[in-house]
Amino acid sequence: MVRKTKDEAEKTRKDLIEAARRVFHQCGVSRSTLEKIAKEAGVTRGAVYWHFKDKAELFFAMREDVFIPMVERTDSFLLSEAYDNPLDAIEASLKEFFRVLDDCLIVREVFEIMISRCEYVDEFASVQEEVGRPAQEFLHKMESVYQRAADKGMLRTGLDPLESARDTWAFTSGMLHLLLGCQMNQGLDQEIPRMISTHMSLRRR
Q: Looking at the chain, which residues constitute the CATH 1.10.10.60 domain(s)?
């Protein structure tokens, strides 16, 4: 009986996270209420508070539900020792990130919420630094891979690993915002693999 109760509680939690994603995406985070999310999930508001103390905590749970597997997937390329040239690992990781974004509607919706449907004000004003943490971690990982490329003599002469990582970070962020944050992206998704290859070719020795 206890096991069944735990399973039911976990299912309710997952239902709430999925409902939050749908409501945040449709209404925007600032106009979404816990009442709307509870109704979408088919539970009471009390059930929401049983699992999450407030909307911000539910927002982070929704994000982590997608970010953790996404980071594991891209890191399997970025940090792989299977590539003789570390620059190939960066290129493969970036292409995998955008491929998953294109293939998985849930992942795409969460990134759309983060980029264009969330105002970091009021109760969310204090969480912006935490929201940006995965991007900072991505930057640090890329710097280490660029450093390995430099140590192997595979990074173009004169390029600094940290500056190269920052440039790739800005390039990736810019493509992500163009792809999801505005309407001026007709056909961009088809061009992204080629753009990534071009970006990386400029860093190769």
A: 1-52
